[in-house]
């Protein structure tokens, strides 16, 4: 996959793209990550990319010219998904990450100041994404978040091919608890079932723990799931315990 980011502060991505899973993904050839400074695509000698909004108002607005020029130069006639990081956009979810991970190329637009010229939204962008109901100073941190979520889903990136399948939200449920050595740490013990060697019982325990954790922390997710009779019965038992 090729991922290109357009930003006014490309230096922000150096540390994130050069460490951990994102670094390993590039070394494995699973993804190519590139970041360009929007200013280099301006058409004036001062590299100005923003201007005052028509009609007045506080703040500065990103001009359409540099964004259009940048995307046209980067894509060279191709038609990848052009993603605008914006608090007005679609709420980012694991399902969206899985959708984007199927693409061959993604371009992320990050901006600062008051906002974007509306023509960027109307005629250039294919997706608008928000990582939550809050406002940040720019789109860089949200873009890093989305890119990390997408890249880890690419084939060969994680150590085990099915590592991401059991992640929270991938199954519709929150992930079950994890334990490792020592089995007894300061009197806090690993559940016996996990050391039993009975994989069928372990799988059942993990499923029930996922259901329980989702019921306790994100019951709204259960409303969207098509639960089995056994899962529904377990949820009913949790409700009775809570009464």
Automatic annotation (TrEMBL):
Q: Is Amino-acid biosynthesis one of the keywords UniProt gives this record?
A: no
Q: Name one GO molecular function term.
A: tRNA (guanine(37)-N1)-methyltransferase activity
Which residues constitute the signal peptide according to the record?
none
UniProt GO cellular component terms: cytosol
User: Which SUPFAM superfamilies does the entry link to?
Assistant: alpha/beta knot
- List residues of the tRNA methyltransferase TRMD/TRM10-type domain: 1-223
Location in the cell reads: Cytoplasm
Residues annotated as binding S-adenosyl-L-methionine are 111, 131-136
* Keyword S-adenosyl-L-methionine listed: yes
Highest taxon in the source lineage:
Bacteria
EC nos: 2.1.1.228
A Pfam family of the record is: tRNA_m1G_MT
Keywords in alphabetical order, please.
Cytoplasm, Methyltransferase, S-adenosyl-L-methionine, Transferase, tRNA processing
Please give the catalytic activity noted in the UniProt record.
Answer: guanosine(37) in tRNA + S-adenosyl-L-methionine = N(1)-methylguanosine(37) in tRNA + S-adenosyl-L-homocysteine + H(+)
Q: Give the chief site where it resides.
A: cytoplasm
Residue spans crossing the bilayer: none
This molecule's function is given as:
Specifically methylates guanosine-37 in various tRNAs.
UniProt subunit comment: Homodimer.
UniProt-listed PANTHER family: TRNA (GUANINE-N(1)-)-METHYLTRANSFERASE
Tell me the HAMAP family matching this sequence.
Answer: TrmD (MF_00605)
Q: Which family does it belong to?
A: Belongs to the RNA methyltransferase TrmD family.
NCBIfam families the UniProt entry points to: PRK00026.1 (NF000648), trmD (TIGR00088)
What is the recorded name of this protein? tRNA (guanine-N(1)-)-methyltransferase
Q: Report the source organism.
A: Lysinibacillus composti
The taxonomy runs: Bacteria, Bacillati, Bacillota, Bacilli, Bacillales
Gene field: trmD
């Amino acid at each position: 996959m090729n991922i290109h980011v357009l930003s006014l502060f490309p230096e922000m991505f150096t540390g994130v793209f050069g460490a951990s899973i994102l670094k390993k993904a590039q070394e494995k050839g699973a993804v190519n990550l590139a970041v360009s400074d929007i200013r280099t695509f301006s058409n004036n000698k001062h590299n100005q990319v923003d201007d005052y909004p028509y009609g007045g108002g506080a703040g500065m607005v990103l001009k359409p010219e540099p964004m259009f020029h940048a995307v046209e130069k980067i894509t060279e006639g191709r038609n990848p998904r052009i993603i605008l990081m914006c608090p007005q956009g679609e709420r980012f979810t694991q399902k969206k990450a899985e959708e984007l991970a199927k693409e061959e190329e993604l371009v992320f637009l990050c901006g600062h100041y008051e906002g974007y010229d509306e023509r960027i939204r109307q005629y250039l962008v294919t997706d608008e994404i928000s990582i939550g109901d809050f406002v940040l100073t720019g789109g860089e941190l949200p873009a890093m978040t989305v890119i990390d979520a997408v890249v880890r889903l690419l084939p060969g990136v994680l150590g085990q091919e099915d590592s991401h399948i059991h992640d929270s939200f991938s199954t519709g449920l929150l992930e079950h608890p994890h334990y490792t050595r020592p089995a007894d740490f300061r009197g806090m013990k690993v559940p016996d079932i996990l050391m039993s060697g009975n994989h069928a019982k372990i799988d059942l325990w993990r499923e029930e723990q996922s259901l329980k954790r989702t019921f306790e922390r994100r019951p709204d997710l259960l409303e969207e799931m098509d639960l089995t009779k056994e899962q529904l019965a377990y949820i009913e038992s949790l409700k009775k315990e809570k009464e």
